[in-house]
């Protein structure tokens, strides 16, 4: 995309946001798939398609190839994108409430400040994705790959992250209140100023690669780590040591 067309596209996006334009810019049909609300196009190839501001609410796009697709301002509410390939897709301003993204590939995708509260992202590939300031409260991210993901100030309160891979992720200042991180991988993750009150951490691999013990709630309790043994004292010194210096 040329710099000029990118500027024009941004200007059009602004018009949509402020209600000064109407209509859909995307094609009405691509590769036999009707681009419309509640359309059914499982496993369709829409790689690189221009779906700017498309109305795909409630659409079945499960297993679809949307790699590199332009989905800015698209309405994807209640759409089924489970197992879809969204690598390199542009999702700025897209409406994602109620969308299903289980097992979808969103590696490296920019979802900064996206509204994904309660969304099904179980098993999704989000490695390297930008989820800074994203709203993921009560989202299902169980088994998701969030390695090296940017989650700075993300709202993950009461989210399900059971078995999720968060190794190397930036969770600084993230809200993990009440989140379920049971058996999650947090090795080398950044948790500076993260809110972990009531977060479940049993079985999680901590940032130090130690495993959190049972009952770890709000903090990682390394119950399985024993304190170092006291050095043995030479025979005959026990009585002298009792009273301190002689």
What are the defining features of this structure?
246 residues; little secondary structure; Pectate Lyase C-like; two-stranded antiparallel sheet; 2 strands; elongated; disordered N terminus; disordered C terminus
Structural features, described:
The protein has 246 residues and is mostly loops. The chain folds into 2 domains: 22-93, E3 ubiquitin-protein ligase SopA (Pectate Lyase C-like), CATH 2.160.20.80; 106-226, E3 ubiquitin-protein ligase SopA (Pectate Lyase C-like), CATH 2.160.20.80. The protein contains 2 helices and 2 strands, in the order H-E-E-H. The chain has a two-stranded antiparallel ribbon. A hairpin with a 2-residue loop joins strand 1 (29-30) and strand 2 (33-34). The N and C termini lie far apart (84 Å). 45% of the residues are buried. Mean pLDDT is 87; it is low at 1-8, 15-26 and 237-246.
Briefly say what this structure is:
This protein has 2 helices and 2 strands.
SSE order and pairing:
Elements: H1 3-17, E1 29-30, E2 33-34, H2 238-242
Antiparallel strand pairs: 1-2
């Amino acid at each position: 995309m040329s710099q000029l067309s990118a500027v024009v596209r941004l200007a059009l996006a602004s018009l949509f946001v402020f209600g000064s334009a109407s209509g859909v810019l995307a094609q009405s049909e691509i590769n036999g798939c009707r681009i419309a609300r509640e359309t059914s196009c499982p496993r369709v190839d829409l790689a690189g398609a221009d779906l700017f501001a498309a109305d795909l609410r409630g659409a079945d796009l499960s297993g679809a190839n949307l790699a590199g697709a332009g989905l800015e301002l698209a309405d994807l509410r209640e759409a089924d994108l489970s197992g879809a390939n969204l690598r390199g897709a542009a999702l700025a301003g897209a409406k994602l409430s109620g969308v299903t993204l289980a097992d979808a590939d969103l590696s490296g995708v920019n979802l900064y400040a996206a509204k994904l509260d309660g969304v099904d992202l179980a098993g999704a590939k989000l490695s390297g994705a930008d989820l800074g300031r994203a709203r993921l409260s009560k989202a299902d991210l169980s088994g998701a790959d969030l390695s090296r993901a940017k989650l700075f100030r993300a709202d993950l309160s009461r989210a399900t992250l059971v078995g999720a891979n968060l190794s190397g992720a930036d969770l600084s200042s993230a809200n993990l209140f009440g989140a379920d991180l049971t058996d999650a991988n947090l090795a080398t993750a950044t948790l500076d100023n993260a809110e972990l009150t009531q977060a479940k951490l049993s079985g999680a691999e901590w940032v130090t690669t130690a495993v959190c013990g049972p009952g770890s709630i709000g903090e990682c309790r390394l119950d399985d780590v024993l304190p170092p043994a006291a050095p043995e004292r030479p025979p005959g010194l026990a009585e002298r040591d009792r009273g301190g210096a002689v």
